[in-house]
Design goal:
The chain is 29% helix and 28% strand. It contains nine helices and 15 strands. By secondary structure, the chain is an alpha/beta fold. The protein has helices at residues 2-19, 61-75, 96-99, 114-122, 132-139, 167-176, 192-204, 215-230, 392-423, and strands at residues 40-46, 81-87, 103-110, 150-156, 181-188, 209-212, 237-238, 254-260, 265-273, 276-285, 293-301, 307-316, 321-329, 343-352, 366-376. The radius of gyration is 30 Å and the shape is globular. β11 and β12 (307-316) form a beta hairpin.
Length: 424
């Protein structure tokens, strides 16, 4: 009797909810975007004719890719929206113009239906050309709007066959858009030229390149990259520095990305109140071949041009990124300064001495990442400049005094022992 009453009450409640127009939450269907913060991954697979080569664990490269994809699809986290794009999968002819348009979206970036995605992958057969550049351009538009991370995982067994469109330049153009898209590349049984091309594509967007020669390696790496997309990330905000402080954008605390051409300087403005400390750092990435000598400079100056503090780094040799930083504590305002404005405008100047190697394009500029953090300053702001020790000076002083007293005591004891020995 009690069970029947509870069942009847449950049915009545459901009917009342439906009558009132209260929609019950439903799961998103496969192929439909869910929310604006879900991480998104687009797997871009090379299905060109060379994928027929049988040199991975006794099977073809295509067989290894299919097996890896099936295992990756099974292990993809629920919160990740995943899509699949192919290149060279449909046109078997010899016309380069037609072959270089051969890229298609096999499965849209969306909530994953594993069965549907596996069925689509099973139909693939090595066919045509290797249009890496065109495929990357199309893949950049596969993503939906949202604040979640966006990642392309490109899997190929050969270099691009659609010159003059350089896939490395395509990657730089994608990075220059400031949409926070990362491209990771995997090379199947790579040669030197392919390794250089895929490395360049990855470095242009802050991604990684990995050489793969076994099916298990391919599965593990793709799984790792898909899982990484699910990790919380801070997406840099695209900004554009000015050629002088007066016209520079005013930045709040956060992570920013920009482009700086060779021989150029970028200016930004930050407001620092009394009792606050400005902490800033910058990293300039060498996303193309540059000459060995390199350096970067970050200066904090007043609006009148007086330098407050600087951070710099320099070196000689191969490098992928050059970084430096600075700190500027602004002391509390005294009573005598009541007529002065509470906030001080600090101008940040970013310059670098990287130079392009012979024959290398100079545009777009090198990517830079600027971190700005304005926090409450230490109680004694001048401690921060004490060679980085801050209040550690107290401990250092105690250690020095202890060492001095120990030395004096040891010297006195040694003299006493010598004196006793001589007497005896």
């Amino acid at each position: 009797m009690i069970t029947r009453k509870r069942l009847a009450a449950g049915v009545c409640t459901l009917l009342a909810a439906l009558t009132a127009g209260i929609a019950l939450p439903t799961g998103a269907a496969a192929g439909e975007p869910t929310g604006g913060t879900a991480p998104q991954v687009d797997l871009v697979l090379d299905v060109s004719g060379s994928m027929r080569t049988a040199d991975i664990d006794g099977g073809t490269r295509m067989a290894a890719a299919k097996q890896a994809f099936n295992e990756v699809l099974d292990a993809t986290p629920e919160e990740v929206q995943l899509g699949i794009r192919t290149l060279g999968a449909n046109y078997p002819g010899d016309n380069q113009k037609t072959g270089c348009k051969d890229t298609a979206q096999l499965y849209p970036v969306s909530t994953l239906d594993r069965t549907e995605a596996k069925t689509a992958v099973a139909t693939l057969s090595p066919t045509g050309w290797t249009p890496l550049g065109p495929a990357l351009l199309k893949a950049a538009d596969d993503f939906t709007e949202g604040a979640g991370s966006k990642r392309i995982v490109l899997i190929s067994d050969g270099e691009d066959t659609c010159a003059p469109l350089d896939p490395c330049e395509v990657a730089r153009e994608i990075a220059a858009k400031g949409i926070g898209l990362t491209i990771d590349t995997l090379g199947l049984v790579p040669n030197t030229k392919m390794r250089q091309q895929l490395s360049c594509i990855a470095e242009a967007t802050g991604g990684t390149y990995t050489s793969v020669e076994h099916t298990e390696e391919l599965t593990d790496k793709v799984n790792q990259l898909v899982d990484r997309a699910a990790d919380p990330v801070v997406t840099p905000v695209a900004t554009e520095g000015a050629a002088e402080c007066a016209k520079a954008p005013t930045l709040k605390s956060g992570l920013y990305t920009d482009r700086e051409e060779f021989g150029q300087e970028r200016w930004y403005r930050v407001e620092v109140f009394n009792g606050q400390e400005l902490r800033a750092s910058v990293s300039v990435a060498a996303d193309r071949a540059v000459n060995p000598a390199h350096g970067t400079l970050l200066r904090a100056v007043t609006v009148h041009g007086r330098e407050i503090v600087r951070g710099e780094a320099a070196g000689n040799g191969r490098t992928d990124v050059v970084s430096t930083g600075l700190r500027y504590p602004k002391p509390e305002r005294d009573d005598d300064d009541s007529d002065k404005p509470a906030a001080e405008v600090v101008c940040l100047q970013v310059t670098h001495s990287l130079s392009a190697a012979s024959g290398v394009k100079t545009t777009p500029g090198l990517p830079l990442e600027l971190t700005v953090d304005v926090v409450d300053a230490p109680s004694a702001a001048d401690d921060v400049a004490s060679f980085g020790l801050g209040r550690g000076w107290w401990l250092l002083g105690v250690l020095i005094l202890t060492g001095f007293l120990a030395g004096v005591l040891w010297g006195w004891l040694s003299r006493w022992r010598v004196a006793v020995w001589r007497t005896n």
